[in-house]
Design a protein that fits this description.
- The complex is a heterotrimer of chains A (355), B (421) and C (712).
- With 355 residues, chain A is mainly alpha-helical.
- Chain A folds into 2 domains: 11-102, Alpha-helical ferredoxin (Fumarate Reductase Iron-sulfur Protein, Chain B, domain 2); 107-354, Fumarate Reductase Cytochrome B subunit.
- Chain A has helices at residues 11-19, 33-37, 49-56, 60-64, 68-71, 77-81, 88-103, 107-114, 119-135, 154-183, 191-200, 202-206, 210-238, 251-274, 282-306, 311-328, 337-347, 349-354; one strand at residues 5-7.
- Chain A starts with a strand and ends with a helix.
- Helix content of chain B is 21%, strand content 25%.
- Chain B has 2 domains: 9-100 and 177-192 and 358-415, 3-Layer(bba) Sandwich (FAD/NAD(P)-binding domain), CATH 3.50.50.60; 197-354, FAD/NAD(P)-binding domain (3-Layer(bba) Sandwich), CATH 3.50.50.60.
- Classes of the chains: A mainly alpha (355), B alpha/beta (421), C alpha/beta (712).
- Chains in contact: A-B, A-C, B-C.
- Chain A binds chain C through residues 1, 3-9, 11, 14-15, 18, 24, 26-27, 29-30, 45, 50, 53-54, 56-57, 59, 84, and chain C through 334, 336, 344, 354-355, 358-367, 372, 374, 382, 384-385, 389-397.
- Strand 1 of chain A pairs parallel with strand 19 (394-398) of chain C, so a sheet runs across the interface.
């Protein structure tokens, strides 16, 4: 009995998984159809059959440190094929949510973001901040030329967003380290291979769902572009090299607009996919709404600015609030999969074998 | 207590459950009308090569039943007949039976001249479509009643070849369907089952891969009087398979197909493995399962198979079957106990398809459960059900069930005569 | 008897083309001295049958030999008025359809069959059925679910029932359960199954007499007239019953033998039965301290599916455990429940219940093997489980371990106390179950008129036991109804013949009383057999066993078969026409031969087939007769024997094989090769092998050369 694993179900964890999208979990009778249905599941230690077992038994420690939960790209084929109606895809989603919450730093932030009852608070905070910014702005009653900076000066916004981003990065770093420690002594030489896969969305290709891959890839690259432009612009303005608004023909602006267009296309596709999927949870919607909100308000704000409509300030205000939320809450929302999945892939046997 | 003067009991279905009910009732002194949809009695079991776990031929038990039917005045057998309507109450039902034309009378001697000259073919349902018979056909060698039948739907226009060939004047091509009415005391629906439609199991390769067959087809291949004369061969090239996979729960225990367990398929596949072991001692067999369900004494049957080094049991459901260019099958499953997924190559794949209650055309009054089985309690009613139409089961359970239903029917029959005991 | 023999030869279905009907007719009239012989091109037709009836009615004929197709066909057409002996000679399946037409050998075969048929007809006497006063009352032993149902349902069909229960109260194992597993839609709700109401109904039913705290002391007699002595509180009580249903149920497997699963390690390791009692009594708690069990672990297959304990699956334990989990849930929604199973066995619609129970948050299921149950920290129990679905061996801390023990049939010890020569109880096969043909004829036992039902017959749940009880009750009713007509029960259901014993010549060798597969024969003090014809299944094993040839049926006797053998013409040694006698089982081998004929398979025409009721009725004198007559070999074809025997009389070909071994020794003394005798086991569907079996045997005989006794 020495090397036997002592099992102690974590009932609270189990109940949270059941309550947040994994409600059919217990119906699983371990036939392993899911592990076969999943194109991403490797031959050695395929998922999600075993993960279903661990989830049924509330084995939080085993599950949350299992890279496999992140290797799932949520195509839903296992759920569709499950003979028992146990919805493994949704269960993994719920488990991922628990993982994000579990590794959150600081922990209370994880709890805050996970719980819909705190939603107003989460966005009241940035709303108040940006209202204050606008209140004390140099030109309280804006007049032409229409510039966002006249109400929301870059000198305030840029440091603010750098601070938020810095905090988010720190939170990510702590979470990822916690996760990586949890995984234990597995090699991580697969980092390069994992990044390559992510860049090209190769795993999605295996998922056999072209629309999903395209949507996800457009969104990811669009946001990556926007993040780069944002960072560059931020640094540029603070260094006094750049001044916003950028001219439409400037390469940075062209790049930014292209990225915005990609994001728009991506989130629109993602939203379209969600429609009619009853199993989507608050957690899913939180992330997707923030994401698409940022894109829609960003583009709307830009268009309004170009049209010199006064409403641009209001829309921009919403845009800022959403960016704030997206960035600050990223480590605690579904956004975090960006970090965890990358680490999981890098530490998985599959990508290590490939490198 | 002999209810000879009471109203007869009607039994619908001449498979093992119906036959048992009919013969047991008749032996208890009760008149019976046995109504069978096809041209001969025996139902599904007649198409089986052997029973589990004794690996004995169904014809052995069927012959005992047929012996009791031969010349037995207490039992009226109607073939090509279906119950079309029922009215009345326990002890006193009015049942209408539609009898389709056999076009062959009792004068038939089994000489077989009609089939010899018959120019037309029909799909052989006895062989699950794996073979063809002439339009003038004998359902099978052990059939009862021992009479040919003519499938008029397969006859060419104006063909009278069989009529001319028959030396005994046994053929009546102009026979018409007729409705017969019977006054009966009780009706036992023993309409049995049909195999789950494998064409709905596309992911398991049926219809897409040539060498994916169903368990009932394998049963015919193993049978001496089957399409391959008892040799189990792959359909694509007639080769003896050296590797065979059995896919358990093909459609059963599946909310997308049959949510219930079909109860007999585990032991059936173990039996099929035994067929293959006996035919081809070198052939390696793999059985993919969720749970092996061999209750009671069937456990010992399973235990024997599990000790056989040529039989591998893998806990893990097959979820994907693909075909290789050579016609071999690529079967993917996870061995859940080893937590390993692999794609294995087999020369033949057998889908253990399940049991679907056969209630087509059964009149109102027989109550169905959520799965379509006639298992809704009908206390003191005279519309009874027995065998696989009541719940999925193996032969011995069906026989038991039918004998039990026979007593309920006998009660109705005895109530239909006055008695003072 | 047979004063005026009428032989009717059909030349239809190819018989006329294969053999010379005129020559056959000559054999009938000149050799066999038939009073009349007619040939007809379609004897089974209206005209042919009318001719036979007319001859009978006119008195020209009183015994009929129909030489046409197999007796398995046209039964109705040729069944004449009661009392007339009709003998069928199979010229179609066994001659015309499987041998070369217009061939000398085929003709000789047909002529021999005709001679043999006539010989048989001449030795057949009209049957006189048994006619005794028959009791139609049933005795049901055991007052649990099965017994109560059998009693009530038989009574509802109009029969009187005596119900005997050893305990003070009715209800048996089911009554001690808190609830029953679901067997009806929607298959998810545990509930009572109306047992209490049925217990009441039994007690007050006018046709049911209940004896509680009673036992069967002794059963004498036979179906239709079982004299049963009961021990009741007031002393002994005599009843007479016609048939018996054994509904003695089951007992749990002895849990004290499950030390390896922790029984005895702690009071907190209990059996499922103990758990059921605890739940029924009220509160589920740890027996050690009466406190709440936060965590309960069920060990499935505790003693079942285990070669060291019960080799079979007890069938009910999976459903029982699921049911017991519902008890826990009612009392304690937060308790953790673990189930360690080998396979979850919830067949059919029961799958619904499994899914429903599984779907509760705190029920934890895994396949696995419990390897140890030991006391753990804080008074808890530590359970080690291997081969789990988690991919590793695990260890669980729990407060209560429930061993899901299985069922052991309760039907073979001190139940019936029959005064039979072959023993007091129902003979059992593996696992202690008393049935003899559990696939096709699950109610058949080796004691006529005694039917086992419910868990005494096979592991089953209460719902199935109720159905089973009805089935067994029907069989019992059938038995008394057939007995009342003097007819046999399965497998020769309806047979009016029965054996008679010419006891003056009996040497008290006891072979018949020992070998009867159904214990029909008792013995007096000297060892003389005492026939009990209502117990008899008419297989003829006694006839085969008797060295003095004193056992005979009116339509089946040693003399009859011997006469048939004598009727075979034995050609001279130099003619190169060997003759082989084939004694075949009429239940399986004979139909297989018919099928070989139907499929037009050819085999050697040297074989002369004589069907036997069962190969167990083989009397070795027939072999001696055949060989001394100059026949060159004897082949027996019968059912498969062994554990998975197919014999309807359970051991016919096995007995024949044993007798054959004895004969072979005798042969060697007579300088005759023992290879001239062979027994082949053949299933009914192995007709394809028949030609090969016969051909190979004839070939072997040819190699051995002619029987040296030819011509003596």
């Amino acid at each position: 009995m020495a090397d036997a694993l002592a099992i102690q179900p974590d009932v609270r964890f189990l109940k949270r998984v059941l309550a947040s999208g994994g409600g059919d979990l217990k119906k699983c009778y371990q036939c392993a159809t899911c592990s076969v249905a999943c194109e991403l599941a490797p031959e050695e230690s395929p998922f999600p059959r075993k993960q279903m077992m661990e989830a049924q038994w509330g084995l939080k420690a085993q599950l949350l440190c299992d890279p496999a939960i992140w290797l799932c790209h949520n195509c839903g084929k296992c759920t569709e094929r499950c003979p028992r109606g146990a919805r493994p895809g949704d269960v993994l989603g719920a488990v991922r949510r628990e993982a994000i919450r579990h590794f959150a730093f600081p922990g209370w932030m994880g709890a805050l973001v996970a719980d819909p009852k705190w939603l107003p608070l989460l966005f009241l905070l940035p709303a108040l901040i940006f209202a204050a910014v606008a209140f004390w702005a140099p030109k309280p009653v804006p007049a032409p030329p229409f510039e966002f900076g006249s109400v929301f000066p870059a000198s305030v916004l840029e440091p603010l967003f750098f601070a938020i981003s810095g905090f988010a990065l720190l939170a990510f770093a702590v979470g990822v380290v916690r996760f990586a420690r949890g995984i234990g002594e597995t090699p991580s030489a697969g980092f390069g291979a994992a990044l390559k896969d992510i860049a090209a969305h190769q795993s999605f290709k295996q998922c056999d769902d072209a629309s999903m891959r395209l949507a996800h890839q457009l969104t990811m690259w669009g946001f990556a572009g926007l993040a780069m432009v944002g960072t560059a612009t931020g640094i540029g303005t603070m260094a006094g090299v750049l001044r916003t608004p950028l001219a439409l023909e400037s390469p940075l602006k062209i790049f930014a607009n292209l990225a915005a267009a990609a994001s728009l296309a991506g989130v629109t596709l993602l939203l379209a996919r969600r429609v009619g999927r009853p199993a989507s949870t608050y957690f899913d919607w939180f992330f997707l709404a923030a994401l698409s909100g940022v894109v829609f308000t960003g583009i709307a704000a830009e268009l309004l600015r170009l049209a010199e409509a006064r409403a641009m300030y209001g829309v921009y205000f919403v845009h800022l609030v959403l960016i704030f939320g997206l960035l600050l809450y990223a480590p605690y929302s579904k956004f975090a999969h960006l970090a965890y999945r990358t680490v999981a892939m890098a530490r998985s046997r599959k990508f290590n074998a490939r490198s | 207590m002999n209810s000879g003067s009471g109203k007869p009991v009607m039994v619908i279905g001449g498979g093992i459950a119906g036959l048992t009910a009919a013969v047991e009732l008749a032996d208890a002194g009760c008149a019976v009308i046995l109504v069978e949809k096809s041209a001969g009695l025996g139902g599904r079991v007649a198409r089986m090569h052997q029973y589990f776990p004794k690996l004995c031929p169904p014809a052995c038990g069927l012959e005992m039943h047929f012996r009791r039917l031969r010349g037995n005045a207490a039992i009226t057998v109607l073939t090509l007949a279906e119950l079309t309507s029922v009215s009345g109450s326990p002890g006193d039902y009015e049942a209408a039976v539609t009898v389709r034309p056999r076009c062959v009378t009792e004068s038939c001697t089994l000489c077989g001249e009609c089939a010899k000259v018959c120019p037309a073919e029909r799909e052989d349902d006895y062989n699950y479509g794996l073979a063809k018979t002439r339009a003038a056909y004998l359902p099978h060698g052990m059939t009862y009643p021992a009479l040919y039948a003519i499938d008029r739907t397969a006859c060419p226009a104006n063909c009278r070849a069989c009529v001319d060939a028959c030396r005994y004047g046994a053929i009546r091509l102009d026979e018409q369907p007729e409705v017969r009415r019977y006054s009966v005391s009780a009706i036992i629906a023993a309409t049995g089952w049909k195999p789950y439609d494998a064409s709905r199991l596309d992911h398991l390769g049926y219809g897409r891969c040539r060498n994916v067959v169903t368990n009932v087809m394998l049963e015919r291949m193993a049978a001496t009087d089957g399409p391959t004369a008892g040799r189990i061969l792959r359909p694509s090239d007639g080769k003896e398979p050296r590797t065979v996979a059995f896919v358990q729960c093909a459609g059963s225990r599946d909310e997308n197909h049959l949510p219930y367990c079909s109860a007999a398929c585990c032991a059936a596949s173990i039996k099929h493995a035994a067929y293959i072991r006996a035919l081809y001692p070198e052939t390696a067999i793999t059985i993919f399962y969720i749970d092996i369900r061999t209750p009671g004494r069937l456990e010992e049957f399973y235990a024997r198979a599990s000790k056989d080094t040529n039989i591998r049991l893998i806990k893990g459901k097959v979820a994907e079957v693909a075909e290789s260019p050579t016609g071999d099958l690529l079967v993917t499953a996870e061995d859940a106990l080893a937590n390993r997924k692999s794609t294995m190559q087999f020369e033949l794949v057998v889908l253990a398809t399940g049991i679907v209650p056969q209630t087509d055309g059964l009149p109102e009054g027989f109550r169905r459960d959520e799965f379509g089985f006639l298992n809704v309690p009908n206390r003191n009613g005279g519309l009874l059900a027995a065998g696989c139409v009541r719940r999925p089961a193996e032969v011995s359970f069906s026989v038991q069930d039918a004998t039990g239903a026979a007593l309920k029917a006998l009660q109705c029959a005895n109530r239909s005569v006055s008695h003072g005991r | 008897m047979a004063g005026k023999l009428g032989v009717y030869i059909c030349t239809g279905c190819g018989i006329g083309e294969a053999v010379d009907g005129e020559k056959l007719a000559k054999v009938a009239t000149s050799e066999c001295k038939a009073a009349s012989c007619r040939t007809h091109p379609a004897l089974c037709g209206a005209e042919g049958c009318a001719q036979i009836r007319q001859d009978l009615a006119g008195g020209a004929v009183d015994t009929v030999v129909v030489a046409a197709c197999s007796p398995r066909f046209k039964t109705e057409a040729f069944s004449l008025n009661h009392g007339t002996v009709v003998e069928r000679v199979n010229l179609r399946e066994h001659v015309a359809w499987c041998h070369a037409p217009q061939d000398e050998n085929t003709q000789m075969l047909a002529e021999d069959y005709l001679r043999m048929g006539v010989a048989r007809a001449r030795k057949t006497e009209p049957l006189e059925p048994l006619a005794d006063e028959i009791s139609r009352a049933l005795l049901v032993i055991g007052g649990g679910v099965t017994g109560i149902t059998a009693a009530l349902e038989a009574a509802a069909a109009g029969y009187s029932v005596f119900l005997v229960e050893k305990e003070e109260n009715l209800g048996g194992a089911a009554a001690r359960c808190k609830r029953q597993t679901p067997a009806e839609p929607p298959y998810t709700a545990v509930n009572g199954d109306g047992l209490t109401a049925r217990m009441e109904a039994v007690l007050y039913h006018p046709r049911i007499q209940v004896f509680c705290s009673a036992r069967v002391v002794r059963i004498e007699g036979q179906p239709g007239m079982f004299d049963v002595t009961l021990s009741i509180e007031a002393g002994e009580h005599q009843i007479r019953a016609g048939a018996i249903v054994v509904a003695t149920g089951w007992k749990p497997y002895d849990v004290s033998r499950l030390v390896h699963l922790g029984y005895g390690v702690s009071p907190d390791v209990i059996s499922n039965l103990e758990f059921e009692r605890m739940a029924a009594a009220g509160r589920i708690a740890r027996p050690s301290n009466g406190q709440r069990a936060e965590s309960i672990l069920f060990v499935q297959c505790a003693g079942s599916r285990d070669p060291d304990h019960l080799p079979y699956c007890s069938s009910i334990c999976c459903m029982e455990t699921l049911k017991q989990i519902t008890y826990i849930r009612e009392q304690d929604p937060e308790a953790q429940v673990y189930v360690v199973y080998k396979d979850v066995r919830t067949p059919g619609q029961y799958e619904r219940f499994y899914r429903a129970v599984q779907d509760q948050a705190l029920n934890f299921f895994t396949k696995g093997e419990v390897t140890a149950v030991k006391p753990g920290a804080g008074g808890r129990l530590t359970v080690a489980v291997e081969h789990t679905l988690l991919g590793e061996s695990i260890q669980l801390e729990t407060d209560l371990v429930v061993l899901a023990t299985g069922m052991v049939p309760n039907g073979s010890e001190q139940i019936l106390n029959l005064t039979y020569r072959q023993g007091p109880e129902l003979p059992v096969i593996s696992g202690g179950f008393p049935d003899s043909h559990f696939v096709c004829f699950p109610y058949e036992t080796r004691r006529t008129g005694i039917y086992a039902a419910g868990a005494a017959r096979a592991p089953m749940d209460a719902a199935q036991a109720r159905q089973d009880a009805m089935g067994a009750a029907l069989k019992a009713i059938q038995c008394v109804e057939l007995a009342a007509q003097g007819r046999a029960v399965h497998p020769r259901g309806g047979d009016l013949s029965y054996p008679s014993f010419f006891l003056q010549r009996c040497t008290q060798c006891k072979r018949c009383t020992e070998e009867c597969p159904f214990g029909a024969l008792d013995e007096d003090a000297k060892g003389t057999p005492k026939p009990n014809p209502y117990r008899c299944r008419r297989c003829g094993v006694c006839l085969g066993a008797c060295p003095e040839r004193i056992v005979s049926f009116k339509n089946y006797s040693v003399d009859m078969i011997a006469s048939m053998i004598k009727a075979i013409e034995v050609p001279e040694e130099d003619e190169d026409k060997p003759r082989v006698l084939a004694l075949v089982c009429e239940n399986d081998a004979y139909p297989a031969m018919d099928l070989a004929g139907l499929k037009r398979r050819r085999y050697d025409p040297s074989v002369r087939v004589v069907p036997l009721r069962c190969l167990g009725s083989l009397n070795i004198v027939w072999i001696a007769d055949a060989l001394s007559r100059g026949l060159d070999g004897v082949i027996l074809v019968g059912c498969k024997y062994g554990d998975d025997y197919q014999c309807h009389f359970t051991k016919g070909s096995e007995l024949a094989q044993r007798r054959l071994e004895n004969v072979k020794e005798t042969l060697q003394r007579l300088q005759l090769e023992s290879e001239r005798l062979q027994l082949t086991q053949l299933a009914i569907n192995e007709w394809e092998q028949l030609p090969q079996v016969f051909d190979a045997f004839v070939e072997r005989i040819r190699k051995l050369g002619p029987n040296p006794y030819k011509g003596f």
